């Protein structure tokens, strides 16, 4: 099978449960590109804050922990590692404690400034090294890479997203609880003062409610090709 090549940046934004992570990884693999999970970076800093015992409302202390966290984020779509001072925290950052705390930590202006700068550095390095990167998060098209060649805002019905999250977490019996958490985080992320969750004015909105992963991937590949971002054959 041939390897396609992504030329530029694909920015995928949207709330939890829309399929961003799976689609972003698959898209990057199909196009021989790098992949950046910015949400994992915020989760890792949140884990560092929780481990430190800092009060989530103490903005200065939270920012200090973030600066000293020793965060490193990998960009291999087949093995996207997240480490704190060399410790792999990829599993721990997906736990319920981090999930509950990540929104207030992510809303800290100093934390966002720090991580956005690091995300832009990673993007620039990927473009220099391999020519393309797929970046997913909540403010990629509006803040991190506003000049991305393709910006897609993924959406889905809240209950469908809750079912997906419950399946991922092995919590099929608590869909209502997951739904409440999804709606809480949507409200928090959409109303925060710094980098609120919203589509960029020039983003393409893609509703994934009735699409499986293959369908989302096909739509994204078509959009990238339509923007002239794909050079060469796409991996089959």
UniProtKB/TrEMBL annotation:
Keyword Iron-sulfur: no
Classification via Gene3D superfamilies: P-loop containing nucleotide triphosphate hydrolases
Compartments in which it is found: Cytoplasm
GO biological process entries: nucleobase-containing small molecule interconversion; pyrimidine nucleotide metabolic process
Record's catalysed reaction(s): CMP + ATP = CDP + ADP; dCMP + ATP = dCDP + ADP
EC number from the UniProt entry: 2.7.4.25
The protein, known as: Cytidylate kinase
Lineage: Bacteria, Bacillati, Actinomycetota, Actinomycetes, Pseudonocardiales
Gene: cmk
């Amino acid at each position: 099978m041939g390897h396609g090549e992504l030329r530029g940046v694909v920015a995928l934004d949207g709330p939890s449960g829309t399929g961003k992570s799976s689609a972003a990884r698959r898209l990057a693999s199909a196009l021989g590109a790098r992949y950046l999970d910015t949400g994992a970076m915020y989760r890792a800093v949140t884990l560092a804050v929780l481990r430190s015992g800092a009060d989530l409302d103490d903005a200065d202390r939270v920012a200090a922990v973030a600066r000293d966290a020793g965060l490193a984020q990998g960009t291999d779509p087949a093995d996207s590692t997240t480490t704190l001072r060399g410790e792999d925290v990829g599993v721990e950052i997906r736990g319920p404690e981090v999930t509950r705390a990540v929104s207030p930590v992510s809303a800290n202006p100093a934390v966002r400034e720090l991580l956005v700068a690091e995300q832009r550095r990673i993007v620039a390095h990927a473009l220099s090294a391999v020519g393309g990167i797929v970046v997913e998060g909540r403010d990629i098209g509006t803040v991190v890479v506003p000049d991305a060649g393709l910006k897609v805002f993924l959406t889905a019905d809240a209950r469908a997203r809750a079912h997906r999250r419950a399946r991922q977490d092995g919590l099929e019996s608590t869909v209502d609880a997951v739904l409440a958490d999804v709606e809480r985080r949507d409200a928090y992320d959409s109303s925060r003062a710094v980098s609120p969750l919203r589509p960029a004015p020039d983003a393409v909105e893609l509703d994934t409610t009735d699409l499986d992963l293959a369908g989302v991937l096909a739509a994204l590949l078509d959009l990238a090709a339509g923007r002239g971002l794909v050079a060469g054959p796409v991996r089959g």
